[in-house]
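ingest -> fold -> write
write: protein_1
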Amino acid sequence: MDEPIYIDIGWTGLSKEGEELCGDNVEIVRTPEAVVAVLADGLGSGVKANILSKMTAKIIATMFEKGAQLEEIVETVSNTLPVCQKRRIAYSTFTIVQVNRDGETYIVEFDNPGVIYLHKGQIFGTRTKEIEIYGKKMKESRFRLVPGDILTVVSDGVVHAGIGGVLNLGWQWENVAEYLQREAAVEPSAVSLSRCLSNACERLYAGKPGDDATVLVLGVRNLKTLTVAVGPPENRGDDPLLVRMIQEERGSKVVCGGTTSTIVARGLGQRIEVELEQMDPVIPPRGRIPGIDLVTEGIITLSKTLEYLKTVHSPEEIPRADNGATSLAKALFESDRIRFLVGRAINPAHQNPNLPINLGLKIQAVNELAEILRRSGKQVEIHYF
């Protein structure tokens, strides 16, 4: 049986100089069966272009998610968008990428620069077929992505970067592809790769973009799973069940809380060691249990981790402090499917009225973490004991 895959997505946009809003828009939809990503480039720039591209991206993504056929989608977009009075055209260019959970990929391109496909670190061309729908000529392609592959979609502001300034003819598609090929070898995530290319565009524009420039990156990798046990079960008879569920889970494993760690260590026939070499003035030290990837204190560490996730958007932005909260935040960021095993037993220490009130809100902290992670596209479930 093939390993499950995950589509890592990151996108970054630059607005044309003098415009507050970007004329490009990206819409992403994740379902249990597939991921659909749309990059739309509205006619012109500024507010009108932003509205055109936002409507286009939203309509396409929503209809694809509901199972509509391409002809239906194009007809709806054509009939919905207003007509430009000067050019007598009513459209936003767009690129649609649909990747199923088995890697089967379907791409539709309408007047945007071609998709850049990296396979095994090399630039690969995609076999496209020209189709015409309601008078609009488009290109479609079908192939299968595998872990390690990267797809990059750009608006024309990217391939025009530097035109008339740093570069006479702009950056050109081939130059963008070669740049991505080099950077993909060192950039760890779709988010960082999209930012890297966007920053390069801004430099070529000398900090004054002559057009909206948007980069959408889809990276394919094996699904990374994480199990986080938080708190002891309400019924002590469920202790063995908790240990068994942790053992049976694939991927990385984290245990939060002293009592929970004791239950897990005992169930695994191991002892807990405390990492006294890394002392933090705020966050209690981590522990070690053979077979468990990370062992932390409970509610203080969870609360600090929640604080980090509310303010940062990628693993690279997490503070460099070496403690349980930074370790847990990185583990959560770097995982795709996360399962929280939450015990409902009440810790008597948390009922002390002299302690901060957030110490008694373990479940609320987990729920808030789960909501933030879901908003970032991760699959999250919570199992209570």
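write: protein_2
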Amino acid sequence: MHALVTGAAGFVGQRLCAHLACQGWNVSGADIYGTLPPPGCAEWVNCDITNRGDVVKLLDDIPPVTHLFHLAAVTFVPDAEKNPKAVSQVNVNGTRRVVETLLKVNPSARVVYISSADIYGPPRFLPIDETHPVQPQNAYARSKEQAETWCRGLHNSGKLDLVVLRPFNHTGPG
């Protein structure tokens, strides 16, 4: 199994790379930030997912992947609110660029899209589960919902093997 982790230099990306490597996966990491690969990355590529050339080069430079764990995103809600166009460029258009390019190179790869529980908005019932209606309340949440909806469209048409995760806020060491 060979995983590409976008957003590999981030809080979750670093831990995911190390975890996958400990499980015997070959791991390639990509991020716009950081020059040193996180533990577990066999290959490391600096990549701006908003740049088509960077994304094509990324997928050309690493061995074929069986899984894409797409974590790359603008995630800080106050930054997203200050510049909703930039967050849409990264979170929506960047996601499209990475997934479309992957489908050209390896259409059978599984995409694990990391969305956000923030797309649920204020809870209508507790506990929140997958049946809860989505009602994004900020630019970040709207961008994650838009990218998720686009990925689901490809999945529903049979073009994309997709798993969507909607994590709630999480913290920890590091």
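write: annotation protein_2
The first strand starts at residue 2 and ends at 6.
The first helix runs from residue 11 to 22.
pipeline exit 0
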